[in-house]
Amino acid sequence: QVQLVDSGGGSVQAGGSLRLSCATSGLTSSRNCMAWFRQVPGKEREAVAFIATGSSSTYYADSVKGRFTISQDNAKNTVYLQMNNLKPEDTAMYYCAAGRYYAVLGPPPPPLSAFDAWGQGTQVTVSS
């Protein structure tokens, strides 16, 4: 059984940092791409960062490039999202996802439909 458990969210002031974690179990190598998405009520889910589990290559949305870092610890079956210099517009529910994507990571990013396993979400709130 595939399971993704998101954690690490919280409330911080602008300029602060948080590290999100996604603990996974039951994933096979067929799901070769991990990602973080975020969603604000009333808006579509937005891609934030991707990592190819085989090569560890990464891709970021322009809105977070240079501030967020996605990484993986294969020994712990965990994917992380280090978020620095947080801004109020980063406030959202953040979701970890696992999927299948066989092209090189780059623009355009993998579509939402490539991801079929999701965490429960963790709330990030950034105050000004």
Q: Key terms for this structure?
A:
128 residues, mainly beta, 7-stranded mixed sheet, 4-stranded antiparallel sheet, 50% strand, globular
How would you explain this protein's 3D organization?
The protein contains no helices and 11 strands. Strands 2, 4, 5, 6, 9, 10 and 11 form a 7-stranded mixed beta sheet that branches. It is 0% helix and 50% strand. It has 128 residues and is mostly beta strands. It is globular, with a radius of gyration of 14 Å. The N and C termini lie far apart (41 Å).
Low-confidence stretches: none
Radius of gyration: 14 Å
Estimated helix fraction? under 10%
Largest sheet: 7 strands, mixed
Q: So what's the overall shape?
A: globular
Helix/strand/pairing category:
mainly beta
Tell me how many strands there are. Answer: 11
Query: What percent strand?
Result: over 45%
Q: In DSSP terms, counting alpha (H) and pi (I) runs of 4 or more, how many helices?
A: 0
Order of helices and strands: EEEEEEEEEEE
